[in-house]
């Protein structure tokens, strides 16, 4: 969408291009927004309704920035560019958080399932030898 707006398409044209090229729930939501705009609803109202319907924090932030840019007359392409950078940073932070939690989640199976099997394999022959030596 950013590329389309920077290439000279209007916001509505970029939305239409996005709808035609991408499939999924978000595409259907943007299609609904575009339909509402064409039926006479203001862009601000249509986008706010989409934000309310979806309830996704990243999408709400994007829509808030788009509405503010529309009200202040700021270029939409700049807003889209900044928002895309921020969303990538948030996604990276969430991935890092999940990566930090992974060792804690792996600790239980490691201690109770993997370590005992390793101990049996490593210490089993030694225990058998000790039993044979003391058994005689």
TrEMBL record:
It is found in: Cell membrane. Its main location: membrane. It comes from Thermohalobacter berrensis. The keyword Membrane applies. Keywords: Cell membrane, Membrane, Transmembrane, Transmembrane helix. It comes from the Bacteria. Pfam families: T2SSF. InterPro entries: T2SS_GspF_dom. This is Type II secretion system protein GspF domain-containing protein.
């Amino acid at each position: 969408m950013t590329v389309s707006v920077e290439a000279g398409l209007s916001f509505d044209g970029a939305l239409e291009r996005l709808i035609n090229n991408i499939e999924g729930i978000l595409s259907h939501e943007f299609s609904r927004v575009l339909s509402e705009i064409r039926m006479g609803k203001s862009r601000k109202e249509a986008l706010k309704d989409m934000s309310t319907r979806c309830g996704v924090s990243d999408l709400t932030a994007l829509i808030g920035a788009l509405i503010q840019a529309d009200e202040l007359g700021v270029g939409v392409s700049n807003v889209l560019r900044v928002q895309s950078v921020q969303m990538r940073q948030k996604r990276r932070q969430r991935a890092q958080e999940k990566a930090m939690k992974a060792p804690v989640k792996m600790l239980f199976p490691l201690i109770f399932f993997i370590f005992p099997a390793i101990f049996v394999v490593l210490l089993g022959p030694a225990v058998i030898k000790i039993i044979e030596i003391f058994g005689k």
